[in-house]
Amino acid sequence: MRSLIRISWCGAIAVLAFSTGCSSEQSLNEKYPTQWQTCNALFGAKNMESLRDILDSDDLKFSNSALSVDQLKKRLTHEAIAPYDESRGFEEYDACGLSGNGRLTSMARWAADSLKAVQANTERWHRAAADVYVADTSGVGGDVDLVFRCAIKGASRQEQVLLEARVSAPAPPRVSEAFHQQLAVKMARTLRDELACTNKPNIPDDLGIGG
Questions:
Q1: Closest CA to 67 of 90, 33, 100, 98
Q2: Residues 50, 45: Cα–Cα separation, whole Å
Q3: Contact at 8 Å (CB) between 204 and 133?
Q4: Per-residue b/e over 88-125, b at no fewer than 16 CB within 10 Å?
Q5: How far apart are CA 9 and CA 7, in angstroms?
Q6: How many CA atoms lie within 13 A of 14 on its CB side?
Q7: Contact criterion met (CB below 8 Å) for 129 and 199
Q8: What's the whole-model pTM score?
Q9: CA nearest 157: which of 95, 84, 108?
């Protein structure tokens, strides 16, 4: 009888240990369901799992507002089609933010600079592909800022308007430049696909950052 009690007790301890190991992921999913889904959609579930491991702490949390990918898509599409308000400019959307032992933030918007302005500013921007330009300060814990032309059906003045995706992450070695680039590429491709850019811009794997 004692041996059965001991086995049951040990089994309960094992279950408790297993559930405790999963509690961080469960609490994030339960407390921030929209942010969880949005971030996983923008960056991919495996990349988000790696980020949670990198930033892991007792106070790991999503810092962005509850904005779904569908809502983000609708708002960006509406801005592209609606008459442009020069006094107001374009909205900047806090797409995904995760903080703990360090912080990841990301932003999506229609870029303030035109394609011609980006092409002229060679000190900041370098060309990664046709109509795809990158500004990079990832090596010092800064941003990978990527802009590309995304033509929207029914929109005007699209030749000069760029979509911008910016990802900020902790400096190496916490987040490597390669992983930082991977996050920016994945986010840009997700936005391109969700918005169904009619020009189908090619976002390359290698943005030529670092080094």
A1: 33
A2: 9
A3: no
A4: eebeebebbbbbbebebbbbbbbbebebeebeeeeeeb
A5: 5
A6: 6
A7: no
A8: 0.85
A9: 84
DSSP H helical segments within the chain, as ranges?
Answer: 2-31, 33-43, 45-54, 69-81, 115-120, 177-195
Question: b or e along 180-197 (b: 16 or more beta carbons within 10 Å of the residue's beta carbon)?
Answer: bbbbbbbbbbbbbebbeb
Instruction: Decide: 151 and 197 in contact? Cβ < 8 Å.
Output: yes
- Residue 39 burial (10 A CB sphere; 0-12, 13-18, 19+): buried
Q: For strand 102-110 and strand 132-136, is the pairing parallel, antiparallel, or unpaired?
A: unpaired
d(CA 161, CA 81): 12
Length of the chain: 211
pLDDT tens sequence for the chain (211 residues)? 545 444 444 444 444 333 334 455 668 889 999 999 999 999 999 999 999 999 988 889 999 999 999 999 999 999 999 887 877 889 999 999 999 999 999 999 999 888 899 999 999 999 999 989 999 888 887 899 999 999 998 887 666 689 999 999 999 989 999 999 999 999 999 999 999 999 999 999 999 887 5
SS3 category, 65:
coil
Query: Quick check: 166 and 148 in contact, CB under 8 A?
Result: no
Nearest to 54 by CA among 18, 104, 105, 107: 104
